[in-house]
Amino acid sequence: MSKLLYITANPKSDSKLSKGMQIGEVFLEEFKKEQPDVEIEHMHLYSMDIPEIDMDLLYSRAKLSFMGYTKDQLTEGERTKLEKMHALADRFIDADYYVFVTPIWNLGAPAILKSFMDCLFIAGKTFTYSEHGAEGLLTGRKAIHIQTRGGIYSIGRMVDFEMGDRYLSKALEFLGFELMETVFAEGMDHNPKMIPEIMAKAKEQAAKAAKEMAKLPVSL
Ligand SMILES: Cc1cc2nc3c(=O)[nH]c(=O)nc-3n(C[C@H](O)[C@H](O)[C@H](O)COP(=O)(O)O)c2cc1C
Asked: Would you give the DSSP letter of residue 189?
């Protein structure tokens, strides 16, 4: 049985309030039609305990990697946060398909997404160093990003200002993921009259992407 991780980075927990989550739900419905047995795990980042990289985490990494400490010699705070980070990474690794739903906020993704991704970058676990440089270890997994935007970033002068989808896509690529094209619904705050049309188009794209993704074999 395959597993799909549905990751939402939005304080809105009710999908009625979030356009991104409404598109995400269409994706999940279509995916389930293709793979009825798929196990879906929802990670709603705002209701999770995600450790920030602070002095405890910095020290725990330094102590274990080059200061000659063992895990037992870490302070309680260092050990607890390090264990949380690894547990989160293990939970993340244990899936085949990944759907990220985020809004663009101030040109990037909500900061909680960065904190979450920071927990996944663990040398020896999710990436490694070889003679070719850094190499992602999470190969064979498929991911898609559904992003909602108040303005327009697909054409015109704002193209280079979009850093939420660009960050997430590059971070996942670094970790070895195979990425599907991002589904975005844009311009909805600038042009509210167009919302029904923009949402319908994004839902159609999400449904199509779900069908395609569900057909792609995972090869972990
Ligand atoms: C704090 C905040 C910052 C935002 N920054 C941007 C932005 O930089 N660019 C943009 O196009 N829209 C921005 N928006 C608008 C949201 O991206 C847009 O309303 C989106 O549709 C929200 O998706 P949701 O309904 O899933 O929450 C911002 C909204 C908030 C609340």
From this structure: T
* Helix (H/G/I), strand (E/B), else coil: 29: helix
Phi, psi of 103 (to 5 degrees): -90, 160
Q: Which domains does the chain have, with CATH numbers?
A: 3-214 (3.40.50.360)
- Which of the listed residues 12, 17, 22, 148 should we mutate to test ligand 1's pocket, taking the one with most ligand atoms within 8 A of CB? 148
Q: Is the pLDDT of residue 220 over 90?
A: no
Give the pTM. 0.97
57 CB-side CA count, 13 A: 16
Atom of ligand 1 nearest to the CA of 101: 26
The residue to mutate among 13, 149, 153, having the most atoms of ligand 1 within 8 angstroms of its beta carbon, is: 149
Q: Please name the residue whose Cα sits nearest to atom 28 of ligand 1.
A: 105
